[in-house]
Structure formats: structure tokens, C-alpha cells
Write the C-alpha cells for this entry.
Amino acid sequence: QVQLVESGGGLVQPGGSLRLSCAASGSIFSILNMNWYRQAPGKQRELVAGITSRGSTNYADSVKGRFTISRDNAKKTVYLQMNSLKPEDTAVYYCNTDGRYAAWGQGTQVTVSS
């Protein structure tokens, strides 16, 4: 079973940056596809970015050019670098892996406000 723990959220001003981290337990991290989702108040959870076990990435149109997903298999960690943050990026951000070893983290709050 895979357990995921996010960190790095917080309060940031518009235009600022944050880096989220998601640490995974177990020994199979390198074969997992990893995703970042977010859920804003009153809205459905949406996929923000994903990275496959081979390092291929995909992004929601709303974050392309501003967010970067990456992974470090040695540290069993996936990252989400968020730049040029906007108030509409405010949400709880969740780490996820799908498929056979599906799991969710507990979420980390990101608030973009002046």
C-alpha cells in the first residue's frame, strides 16, 4: 500500500511562487504515475498536472507555462513548482497515484491573496 504526504502549502501574494512536495512510502515509487489535483471551495476536484513513471508530463490549460511537475525517484518524492500564482489558484492541493496502487494524500492548502 502506498501512502502519500504533501507539504509546502501556504499563503502567497499574487505573482509569487510555491513548491509543493509529496513524499511516498514503500519501494515502488519509481513505477507509479503521479498526479497533482486541486479542489477550490464549492468546486469539483480537478487535475492540475501529471507525470508518468518515465517522466512524461501533462498539464491543465489553466496552469501551462506557470506550473512544473517533477519527480525524484531516489527521494520517492514528486514536486509541483508553482510560479506566477493567481488568486484563482487558491485551493487544497492533493497528491495522487492512480491504477493498481491508487492513493491520495491528505492535501495541503494554497492561498493566493494580497
Remarks:
- The mean pLDDT is 97.
- The chain has no helices and eleven strands.
- Residues 92 and 109 are 4 Å apart (CA to CA).
- The longest strand covers residues 18-24.
